[in-house]
From TrEMBL:
Protein name per the record: Voltage-gated potassium channel
Residue ranges crossing the lipid bilayer per the database entry: 65-86, 98-121, 133-156, 176-194, 238-257, 382-406, 412-431, 443-461
Lineage: Eukaryota, Fungi, Dikarya, Ascomycota, Pezizomycotina
Pfam families assigned: Ion_trans_2
Topology relative to the membrane: Multi-pass membrane protein
Domain named Potassium channel: residues: 182-261, 394-467
UniProt entry tagged with the keyword Transmembrane: yes
Cytoplasm found in the keyword field: no
Region Disordered: start-end pairs: 674-710
Length: 710
C-alpha cells in the first residue's frame, strides 16, 4: 500500500528527526561534562565560606561513576544508530527503536544517579553543594528523555501510515545535521584543550566545564570577561579557535533559517495560499444569473456576514470551463466550484462571445491570482517575524526566571536584573557587570545561550525582511523628494495615485488648450502622435515585422482581441512571423531569468505567450478549435502556471523553447511535402507559409500521428 505524507504530520516526519539529531549531540556533550566532573564540592574552607567556583570538589561514589559511564555509552551508541538511520546504513525499523531504547536507558540511569545521590550521599549543607557536573547530568537526562519521546511520535506517524519508513531529508537538512555534530565536537574539544593548558600552565586551573563555558562565550561573542586566557599558548589558540567556531555557528544559523523557511513555505504558506485560493473560487460568478442566484441563496445569512464579506467583489468565472490537457494526452474537463453549487442553466453558455470579453474575464481572474500571490508573500514574511518574536520573548522571559532563581543566593539577582542580563546576552553585548556566579547558573547559561543566541540572529534576519525593509523603503522615498531628489520621483508618486494624476493631466490639457486657442491654433495638438491613426504608426517598409515587435514587446487587449478574431477565422500568422515572435519572446524571457527579483509578467504578456504556445501545437487530437478563451488553465486553479512552483520566466522559457521546436518540425514537414498536399485526418489550425498563403498540407508530424503534447 502506497504511503501518503499527510500535511498534518509534516513536523513529525521532518521536524522531529532534525530536532532529535540536533539535541542528541548536545545531550552527549552534557553527559560527558557530567562524567568528567565530580558532583559535589566543599565550599567551607579554612573556617569561611568561599564562592562556589572556588570550592574544592571531592570524589563521587564508585557506583555513581560507573553508572554514569554506562549512561554515556548508551547515549553515544544511540546517537550513532540515529546517524546510521539518516544515512540509510541501517533500516528504519531497526535503527530507530534501538536509538529510543538506548536513550531511555541513558535517561533512566541519570535519573537514578541523581535520585540516589540525593538520598544516599547528598552534600552536607551549607558546607557542601553540588557542582556543575550534577546540573549537567540533569540536563543530559532531560535531553535524552525529550529526544526519545519525539522519536516515538515519529514512529507513531509511520505506524499510522502517514509517511514511509525513512527520513525524507533534503541535502541542506543533512548538512545541518553534520554541521551540528561538528559544532558540538568543536565545543567539547576546545573545552578539553583549554582545560589542559590552563590547568598545567595557567594561573588558575580550569576544569572541563569551566573551559567549555569559556569556549561558549567566545564562540557566541558574548565575552563577559569572568574567564579569560592567562597563558600565551591559550591566547594564541584563541585566534584559530574563535574563527572556526564563529564560522561553524554562522553556518548552523544559516541552515536553521533556511530549514525553517522551507518548512513554513511547504506546510504553512502553501496552506494559506490554498485557503485563499479556495475562498476566491467560491466568489466566482459566470453571469448575472449566477450573481442573482447567489444573492437569493445567501439572503438569509446577510445578518451574519461582516461588512468586509458583503463588500467583497465577485470574480468572473469561465462560463464554459475548458479541457485540461494532461501529459499523457488525456482530456479532463475542469469543473469550477460554481458549477457544482449553481445548477441553473445559463442561456448564454453556448453563445460565441467576442474575444475582448473573454480576455477581460480571464484578466479578472489573473489579477485575483496576482493579489493572492502578493498577500501570500507578505503573510510569509510577517508570519516568520511573529514566530521569531514569540521564540525570542519566551527565551528572554522564561530564561530570566531560571537565572533569577539560580543567582538569587549567589549574587542577590532580582528578576529585572535577570531580564537585563538575558537581554545583553541575547544581543551578545556582554558588559560583564552581570555574569553567572553559581554552578547551576553557569550550566544553564551554556545550554540556554546555544539556543537563544541563534534565535536572536534569525529574528534580526526576519526583521530585515519586514520592518527594516519597510523603514528603508520609506526613508528612500522621503530622500527622493527632499535631500536626494530623484528624476521621475514625482511621476512615480502620481502613478501610484491615479485620481491625482488624472486631475493634473486634465488641468494641464485644459490649460494647454486655452494657450493654443489664444495663439490661434486648433484645440487638437497636431504634433501629438496619439492623434495619428494606428496605421500611420507602423513602418511602411516592413509592417509585419513592426507588428510582431509591437505585439511581442507591448501587447494590449484590443490588439490581442483582434489577433484572436483572426485565429478564429483561420487567418493565423505566417511561419516566418511565428519564428520571429518566438525568438523575440525567448530572448526577452531568457534575459528576465537574470533578474535578482523574479520577473512577474502582466496579463497581456501572458496572453501573447500562451497564444504562441497554443498555435504551434502539433497534436491535433488534443486541440479543440471551438473552445473559448486563449489559455488552457484557470488562473486561480491548481493547474495555473502561477501555482507551478517555478519562476514565471523559467516556466515560460521551457514552454516557448518547446514551441520553437514544434514550429521547426512543421517547417521541415512543409518542406518535405512541398506545401501542396493536405494530410488527412488532422484538424490543426491553419498556419500560413512564408508567402502569406495558407499551405495546402497540415499535419501533426512527419508521420501524420503527432508527437504528443509536452
Amino acid at each position: 500500500m502506497a504511503l501518503i505524507l499527510r500535511s498534518d504530520w509534516w513536523f513529525a516526519s521532518t521536524g522531529i528527526p532534525l530536532l532529535a539529531a540536533t539535541l542528541g549531540p548536545l545531550a552527549n556533550v552534557t553527559s560527558i561534562a557530567a562524567l568528567v566532573t565530580s558532583w559535589r564540592e566543599q565550599i567551607y574552607i579554612d573556617g569561611e565560606f568561599v564562592p562556589e567556583f572556588d570550592g574544592v570538589p571531592f570524589a563521587d561514589p564508585r557506583w555513581c561513576y560507573w553508572i554514569n559511564v554506562c549512561s554515556l555509552i548508551c547515549g553515544l551508541v544511540g546517537n550513532l544508530f540515529l546517524m546510521f538511520n539518516f544515512t540509510q546504513r541501517i533500516r528504519y525499523k531497526i535503527a530507530l527503536p534501538v536509538t529510543i531504547i538506548l536513550w531511555y536507558l541513558a535517561t533512566t540511569m541519570l535519573i537514578a544517579i541523581t535520585a540516589c545521590m540525593q538520598i544516599y550521599a547528598p552534600p552536607e549543607r551549607p558546607y557542601q553543594t553540588y557542582t556543575q557536573g550534577f546540573w549537567y547530568g540533569i540536563a543530559a537526562a532531560v535531553f535524552y528523555l525529550l529526544c526519545s519521546m519525539l522519536l516515538m511520535v515519529n514512529m507513531l506517524g509511520y505506524f499510522l501510515g502517514h509517511y514511509p519508513d525513512n527520513f525524507a531529508l533534503s541535502d541542506s537538512q543533512r548538512t545541518l545535521i553534520l554541521q551540528t555534530m561538528v559544532f558540538f565536537v568543536w565545543l567539547a574539544g576546545g573545552g578539553a584543550v583549554f582545560s589542559k593548558i590552563e590547568s598545567d600552565l595557567g594561573e588558575e586551573g580550569w576544569g572541563f566545564v569551566d573551559a567549555m563555558y569559556f569556549c561558549d562565550v567566545t564562540i557566541l561573542t558574548v565575552g563577559f570577561g569572568d574567564l579569560y586566557p592567562t597563558t600565551d599558548l591559550s591566547r594564541g589558540l584563541v585566534f584559530p579557535y574563535s574563527v572556526g567556531g564563529i564560522i561553524t555557528l554562522a553556518l548552523i544559523v544559516s541552515s536553521i533559517y533556511k530549514f525553517m523557511k522551507e518548512l513554513g513555505e511547504e506546510n504553512i504558506v502553501q496552506k494559506h495560499i490554498e485557503r485563499t485560493r479556495q475562498r476566491t473560487l467560491d466568489r466566482t460568478v459566470t453571469s448575472s444569473f449566477d450573481l442573482r442566484q447567489r444573492e437569493r441563496e445567501e439572503h438569509h445569512l446577510i445578518r451574519k456576514r461582516t461588512l468586509d464579506n458583503r463588500t467583497r467583489p465577485n470574480i468572473s468565472a469561465p462560463t464554459q470551463p475548458r479541457a485540461m490537457h494532461t501529459a499523457m494526452g488525456n482530456e479532463v474537463r475542469r469543473i469550477s466550484s460554481r458549477t457544482l453549487t449553481l445548477p441553473l442553466p445559463n442561456p448564454l453558455k453556448n453563445a460565441r462571445r467576442p474575444p475582448i470579453l473573454l480576455l477581460r474575464e480571464e484578466k479578472d481572474r489573473f489579477d485575483a491570482m496576482r493579489n493572492i500571490q502578493h498577500k501570500s508573500q507578505k503573510f510569509k514574511r510577517w508570519m516568520a517575524l511573529v514566530f521569531s518574536v514569540a521564540a525570542f520573548g519566551i527565551l528572554w522571559c522564561v530564561g530570566a526566571i531560571f537565572f533569577w532563581q539560580a543567582e538569587k543566593k549567589a549574587q542577590g539577582m532580582t528578576y529585572f536584573q535577570a531580564l537585563y542580563f538575558c537581554y545583553i546576552s541575547l544581543l551578545t553585548i556582554g558588559y560583564g557587570d552581570l555574569s553567572p556566579k553559581s554552578n547551576a547558573g553557569r550550566t544553564f547559561f551554556v545550554i540556554w545561550s546555544l539556543i537563544a543566541v541563534p534565535t536572536m540572529t534569525i529574528l534580526v534576519s526576519d526583521m530585515g525582511d519586514t520592518v527594516v525593509h519597510n523603514f528603508k523603503k520609506w526613508s528612500d522615498e522621503l530622500a527622493d523628494f527632499t535631500v536626494l531628489p530623484k528624476d521621475g520621483a514625482w511621476r512615480t508618486f502620481l502613478e501610484k495615485h491615479p485620481w491625482l494624476l488624472d486631475w493634473i493631466q486634465k488641468w494641464v490639457a485644459e490649460r494647454a488648450a486655452k494657450k493654443r486657442l489664444k495663439r490661434g491654433f486648433a484645440t487638437a495638438d497636431p504634433d501629438d502622435p496619439s492623434e495619428e491613426p494606428a496605421s500611420e504608426l507602423i513602418n511602411d517598409e516592413d509592417p509585419e515585422e513592426q507588428l510582431d515587435l509591437q505585439i511581442t514587446l507591448s501587447p494590449n487587449l484590443p490588439i490581442l482581441a483582434e489577433e484572436a478574431e483572426k485565429d478564429v477565422s483561420g487567418v493565423t500568422p505566417t511561419l516566418a512571423s511565428l519564428s520571429r515572435r518566438l525568438a523575440l519572446s525567448i530572448k526577452r524571457v531568457a534575459a528576465d531569468l537574470h533578474h535578482v527579483k523574479p520577473k512577474r509578467y502582466e496579463y497581456e504578456e501572458w496572453v501573447e505567450f500562451t497564444r504562441l504556445i497554443r498555435i504551434t501545437r502539433l497534436d491535433s487530437e488534443n486541440m479543440d478549435e471551438e473552445e473559448e478563451g486563449l489559455i488552457d488553465w484557470d488562473w486561480i486553479g491548481t493547474d495555473s502556471p502561477l501555482m507551478s512552483g517555478l519562476s514565471e520566466a523559467e516556466w515560460l522559457l521551457n514552454r516557448l523553447c518547446e514551441s520553437l521546436v514544434r514550429l521547426e518540425r512543421k517547417k521541415e514537414y512543409f518542406a518535405q511535402v512541398g506545401g501542396t498536399k493536405r494530410a488527412r485526418g488532422t484538424s490543426l489550425p491553419t498556419i500560413q507559409d512564408g508567402d502569406g498563403k495558407q499551405p495546402d498540407v497540415m499535419a501533426s508530424g512527419a508521420n501524420g500521428k503527432g508527437d504528443g503534447q509536452t
